[in-house]
Hints:
The protein is mostly helical. The chain folds into two domains: 5-49; 58-125, Orthogonal Bundle (434 Repressor (Amino-terminal Domain)), CATH 1.10.260. Helix content is 58%, strand content 8%. The chain has six helices and two strands. The protein has a two-stranded antiparallel ribbon. Strand 1 and strand 2 form a beta hairpin. Helix 2 (58-65) packs antiparallel against helix 3 (70-77), helix 4 (82-89) packs across helix 5 (93-100) and helix 4 packs across helix 6 (108-118). The chain is elongated, with a radius of gyration of 26 Å. The protein starts with a strand and ends in a 10-residue tail after the last helix.
Amino acid sequence: MRNAHIITENGKKMAVLPLAEYKRMLAIIETKEDAQDIQDTKSVLARVKARKELLVPGEVVHAIIGGAHPVRAWRIHRGMTAAALAEKAGIARPYLTQIEGRKRRGSIDILRAIAKALRTDVDSLLEG
């Protein structure tokens, strides 16, 4: 920044520099930010692979924020009918409907079975 000129405008000091110098500095900053983004992504993927973190698809998140029960949000995301999920989890369809409708909470064993059928973890099916 040998070519920078310092000016004062509205009581604030600013540096004015040639466009080429500005572009060079911007490239350095972007390269460092890209490297940090890549490192952050690798870190998240490693935690997911080690089963220390779960990625929740945006479709599921938006459905839950919109008021859907997490079981229903995951079921729809997986493209399953209530009958298919109930069968795969080994429970009665009305029981699943009651869980999705918040009329019943479901035991931990039932939630484990549902989570396994949905290929997710129990924590992602809990509310609150």
